[in-house]
Amino acid sequence: MARREDMDRKSCRRPLSPGRVLREAQEAWPLALTAPMPRPLANWAQDTPFCLLALGANFEYIIAEKRGKNNTVGLIQLNRPKALNALCDGLIEELNQALKTFEEDTAVGAIVLTGGDKAFAAGADIKEMQNLSFQDCYSNKFLKHWDRLTQIKKPVIAAVNGYAFGGGCELAMMCDIIYAGEKAQFAQPEILLGTIPGAGGTQRLTRAVGKSLAMEMVLTGDRISAQDAKQAGLVSKIFPVETLVEEAIQCAEKIASNSKIIVAMAKESVNAAFEMTLTEGSKLEKKLFYSTFATDDRKEGMTAFVEKRKANFKDQ
Prior knowledge:
By secondary structure, the chain is an alpha/beta fold. It contains 14 helices and 10 strands. Helix 8 (201-209) crosses helix 9 and helix 12 (260-272) runs antiparallel to helix 13. The longest helix is centred in the N-terminal third of the chain and has 16 residues, at 89-104. The termini are far apart.
């Protein structure tokens, strides 16, 4: 098996000059640690292998910044356009780092994950897995680090334009809400490569669209349109390509305006519906519902309603 360094160099890595980019970014954006990236610098970053996140991290395959009127939304854009955002190991590692940063940022209440207009993510990086053996996959728990997205307590909205194939479709399904552009397409084409989905495709797709359509997609590799995905329940809303990300950010802002601790409880309860029986899920829901009465935000929310004013949540 090729060394990781050699594999990265062939399939993922591009020559970089981190020091120069960092210096230029700091000169153009002196408030990088506290303020959202201005549009001119964001445009500059799109043509650069990486940009800055809140903690000054250097990214090669993603662009990450805060968005929204009060910087309450974490926006992560997959940024490997020449490879249609193929999910190489380095990209997933950077995605996990950005997710961790936004998860720990108390100002951020929700996260939006998107790609480019042509592709959200066209799948996993086949060049990275082409020569793997069973022993490699089993011993190293291949794709295990993809699960980080499912462990985030804050809501994550996938804004999908273009292709969401294979790992890209699986990545979108790990999110809590999927918004799609009018030209988005979804598929699990692993069968055409002599393998099957390995990051939750057979499980989450079946739960989302039902056995018949999931079986058809997995066994044929056929793709479905955004309209078909919405009709099947995979997607919640469809928007024009050019407004998709802003619509997702607006939804994230709306979520972020609520109590973060209550939002986390609500997310946990809904997700439990996919793991538990109705009886077990209802019991968990009751426990979480009762738990809200131990928070200051529950009291503030009900008091504000009675007093006919807007609630001022403190996330406590």
